[in-house]
Amino acid sequence: MRLHQVIDTCLAFMAASTASAALKGDKCTEHRALVGEFVQGPAMVSANPSTHFDSPMVTVFDDSVSENWSFDAVSEDGKASLVLYLTRGTVANKVAAQRGLISVAWANGTRYMENAFVDDSILTTCPETTSGLWTNTSGNITWAFTASKDFKQSVVTIKSPTINGTFKLKSRGPPIYPGGLVYPHAQASVLFAPEMYWQEQFPVADAEVRLDIRGTSFHWNGVGGRDKNWNPRPWAIISQNWDMGRAIVGPYGLMFWNYTSAVDGRSYFSATVTKGNQVIFRTANQEASCSNSKRYGTITLTNTGPVHLSSPPGSEKPLPESRHTGYLIDLMSPKTSEHWQFTIDFSQTTFWFRASETLHVGQFAGHASGGLVGKKKYKGVTTGSVQELVLQGRQSE
Fold first, then answer.
1. What is the pTM of this model?
2. In order of start, what are the domains of the chain with their CATH numbers?
3. What is the pLDDT of residues 70-86, one digit of tens each?
4. Residues near 343 by beta carbon (within 8 Å), at least 6 away in sequence
């Protein structure tokens, strides 16, 4: 595992014109990062659990570190979907980039993906709001987000020659750390797995999408959320397979991530169930303890659903489809004898592409059902992401 030295903040800022922090007025703090500017040697990444969840956790960039705000949503009927990334740092083999990416699927299965590499990004933290702005010097491309400091509301706004509109989230659960502790919590950890840092600002939320994409409307309401990750090295280097998702099923909100690290080969797990603004179940355990007292959960991959994640129709070199079509999720609390069970089936592919020679990565929309075993069974929708190892002999055709 790569060692990351703690370097003196002042020296780092002097060495890198790439990132600057300044006070705006008396109450707001601004941090700017420029495309292509980075320092030699390891960058400093923060792991302070008390830092506000939308504040930058990487303030000086080297040639491999990145910080990424992720937004996703699924329509109420599970047919349309969206994922959007706002990234600072190395991404898509571009060092010290400033990028917005959006991938969408209309209800009829039509897909669209766009990368917008711009010139700089500015994070502005104020007493009541935090905002991020990704833009180019000519001013004709702007990707931005604004969120309330209590993570009740968030809005993404895109203004460009190809995309215009907004994507709004209204929280249905509290911001959480890996393992489900509620922010702020001084004893929590933002380190989920080796080199994989994670904050979940909106585990589950109501979503409103009002975008116009190359002249075509993409308007709907549904379920979504957003999170942030920062990594000293690229995702495809530090990660193997993963399955991540969020859902609203009746009164319950569900957030889970089952992740295998390429750094140490181990599996890492987090699952949280919310009801209203309360966390009613949380665990980082994948098996029962010897004392049978700790909460735990399991995720079983299923392949009996209607949709495998796949390349867009008409692709010249389509990838093999995903090997699974959904999940069976069991969450157990031995102390209370409560058992939550949720079933997820993919209903739409948002994207499916090659992350590396050995990995395929995708985003899904889906249908979900479940609740407490023995109680009322609810229905809802889900959105999430998949990364799977390419099996030998299953390269693109």
1. 0.92
2. 9-50+58-389 (2.40.370.10)
3. 999 999 999 999 999 99
4. 302, 326, 327, 328, 329, 368, 369, 370
